[in-house]
Amino acid sequence: MRKQNTFMRTKISLVVASCLAASSMPAFAADSSQIDEMKREIKALEQKLESMQADVQKTKQVQQQTEAKVEETKKAQEETQVKVEKVASTVTNMSESVRGIPTGKGIQVGKVNLQFGGFLASETAYRSRSLQSDIGSPFSQIPFASSVGDNRYNQSEFRGTERQSRISMLATANVDPETVVSGYYELDFLAAPQTANPNQSNSFSPRTRHVYANIDWLDSGFHILAGQTWSLATLNTQGITPRNEYIPLTIDAQYVVGFNWARQWQFRMVKDWDKKYWGALSFENSQTHGVAGALPTGVTAFGYTLPNVGGSLFDNQNTMSYNKYPDVIAKFAAETDYGHYEIYDLMRNFQSASTTTPATANTWTNAVGAGAIIPIVPKVLDFSISGLVGKGVGRYGTTQLNDATYNALGELTPLSGSSFLTGLTWKADPKWDVYANYGQERINSSTYACTGGTGTCGFGDGVASAATLDGAPGSYLKNVAQSTAGVWWSFYKGGYGAAKLGLQYSHTTLNTFTPVGGGSLSTSDNMFFTSLRYYPF
Questions:
Q1: pLDDT of 55
Q2: Which residues contact 434 (CB under 8 A, 6 or more apart)?
Q3: Burial of 203 (0-12, 13-18, 19+ CB in 10 A)
Q4: Cis bond before residue 296 (omega within 30° of 0)
Q5: What is the 3-state secondary structure (H, E, C) of 378-411?
Q6: Peptide bond into 26 cis (omega under 30)
Q7: Which member of 124, 275, 441, 462 lies 3.0 to 4.6 Å from 456 by CB, making a disulfide possible if both were Cys?
Q8: What is the pLDDT of residues 182-209, one digit of tens each?
Q9: Of 240, 111, 251, 102, residue with least CA distance to 184
């Protein structure tokens, strides 16, 4: 364009020069008509030059507008990415890394991004008391010295296992700049069908840990989750978003005493306000777990046990409870400069149905939980604390203490209880993570005088005889406490993935209620775990 302008100016100059030369030559003087023609030509050229200059200016304006739109689009994309990262932010204490949750960029399949995660594990468990268990420890089943016909108290136990290995996949798609849809699936190999055993070639099978879909409307701050994942009762590390739960870094697949959790179906609705304040409501699968105690003579318990065995697609060796309503959990969380804080309310319904009459009874219970993660030294040392207190809380504790007992009519009566867990996580450097936890779970008694005023019925002190406790002390547990400590060493990270070595020690104590005639029973177990994990993704 500049060359064209220069050419036009040169041409005009030549025309003007020719006119002047013609007017000054007496022999070839141009008549007036020729001069007028030259003037018209000069004017036409000037107009054409002005038009070209206008076109240049218009082109510049279009170019500037295009650049502005490109910059605006780029800024919007960056803002969207920031929002996405806030919603799917990763924790700072290595929890996601150890759990094998996808954190990379993944591969693009059409409009969907696929990220793969998981790890291959080679692990060992040593226990001072034999639990006849794999990598997950059933803490409530630690044997007592006085247990009749049970010599497990005097036997130690060693297990080598690969079954905690995991495979996971995260699918994410941006429907538009403000809407993100994702789906997550994770499995391990801790399922144990009846034919599974370690005699020669085992038949352990895959087990679904998580499978859910999630929709995030970033601009409005609304989020919906449907499927199986950690209960809303589980402590989060940031906001109320999936895959940001605070999961103890233990090797033990049953985690640590005092940890409140469940992995179950749920439909969850969440609203955030600028990613600082969060509110959520979740409807979750219900199941009454653990009913124990003594009934008055002649009273028949309402149906919780047989004949309520598993039906279609459930194992008939398992007992199913009557579930008329889902568990309901409402939670509020806040992100501050001094850490993450949350409080929640848990409502459960206990349904009883008589085995001898058409009578039914149902009871609603309420429990309150709270938790916090406080960065004592940001990105170096974190302190965590969580707890739950109320009725019917046994199922949500890692020990699985009793949920209920029977009243004088044989109806289910939820037991009150409490639990708490404290912990420190020290990120010594990028390769080392050290953690320590202490937790307790407790169930309170619910007793009444038996018919005729002889003896104590219900659940608690003075209900069971010493012989009954000797035969099944785990059914009358009062409280469980545990101290645990461990370390993870990330000794390799490169083009071939990552590898980590973990060590863990725990000490667990159990106490029963006081039997008839006084006294009490207690036991303990020391456990050591090792883990070698390879993360290919």
A1: 78
A2: 425, 426, 428, 485, 486, 487
A3: exposed
A4: no
A5: CCCEEEEEEEEEEECCHHHECCCCCCEEECCCCC
A6: no
A7: 462
A8: 999 999 999 988 788 888 888 899 999 9
A9: 102
* Tokens coding 209: 């840990």
The percent of the chain in helix, strand and coil, each rounded to the nearest 5, is 20, 45, 35
Span 124-183, pLDDT tens digits = 999 999 999 999 999 999 999 877 767 899 999 999 999 999 999 999 999 998 999 999
461/514 Cα distance (integer angstroms):
5
Dihedral, CA atoms, 313, 317, 322, 325, nearest 10 degrees? -50
DSSP bridge partners of 515: none
298 Cβ neighbours under 8 A, 6+ residues apart: 451
Any idea what DSSP says for residue 89? P
Q: Which amino acid is at 408?
A: A
Place of tokens 């700049």: 177
Q: Which amino acid is at 199?
A: N
Q: Domains along the chain?
A: 2-83 (no CATH), 88-169+176-190+203-535 (2.40.160.10)
Whole-structure pTM value: 0.82
Per-residue CA distances from 276 to 94, 177, 339, 534 (Å): 22, 21, 11, 36
One-letter amino acid at 412 equals L
Distances (CA, A) of 537 to 50, 74, 100, 127: 63, 30, 9, 32
Q: How many CA atoms lie within 13 A of 41 on its CB side?
A: 16
Tell me which DSSP letter residue 299 carries: P
Alpha helices in 289-403 (DSSP H): none
Rounded CA separation 439/26 (Å): 117
Instruction: List Cβ neighbours of 147 (8 Å cut-off, separation of 6 or more).
Output: 153, 470, 471, 473
pLDDT at 501: 98
Coil, helix or strand for 62? helix
Backbone angles phi, psi at 334, to 5 degrees: -140, 140
E strand or H helix at 336: strand 327-336
Instruction: Map residue 494 onto helix, strand or coil.
Output: strand
Residue 470 corresponds to which amino acid? D
